[in-house]
Amino acid sequence: MITEKITLPDGIEYNGTMHRDMEIRPQKVRDSVEAMENERAQNNNAYLGLAVLAGQTLRLGTIPKDQITADLLMELSEDDMNEINSGLERLRNRVQSFRAENKGR
Fold it and tell me: Which SS3 state, helix, strand or coil, does residue 84 take?
């Protein structure tokens, strides 16, 4: 699986520790469907985006995966979100390159 590793400039505090190392995977339909099950996400596109991102996040420091939620990601700084958005763009480009290289195989 193609993933992207990101180092957040500020990070998220969880249980007294700052967590800055993040790994994300490409978005799946499942991420969108599961995000839409959250009532808050149904009425707020920004929250929906965070809920999808939470699903895409494989790792955020040593925070347990089940604790990586949209509510937790709301604690990200704007600088962190800018870095994540850059990482998402790099990830999309890598996936597109992979697909182009493997087209017809």
Answer: helix
CA-angle at 42, arms to 37 and 44, nearest 5°: 135
- C-beta of residue 7 within 8 angstroms of C-beta of residue 83: yes
CA dihedral of residues 46, 52, 56, 61 (deg, nearest 10): 50
Residue 16 Cα to chain centre, angstroms:
22
pTM of the model: 0.91
Quote the crossing angle between the two packed helices 45-56 and 29-36, to the nearest 10°: 130
Check residue 3 and give its pLDDT.
97
- Spell out the long-range contacts of 15-23 with Cβ–Cβ below 8 A and sequence spacing 24 or more: 17/61, 17/62, 18/61, 19/60, 19/61, 19/62, 19/63, 20/61, 21/59, 21/60, 21/61, 22/57, 22/59, 22/60, 22/61, 22/84, 22/87, 23/57, 23/58, 23/59
CA-CA distance, 67 to 38, in Å (whole number)?
15
pLDDT over 80 at 91, yes or no: yes
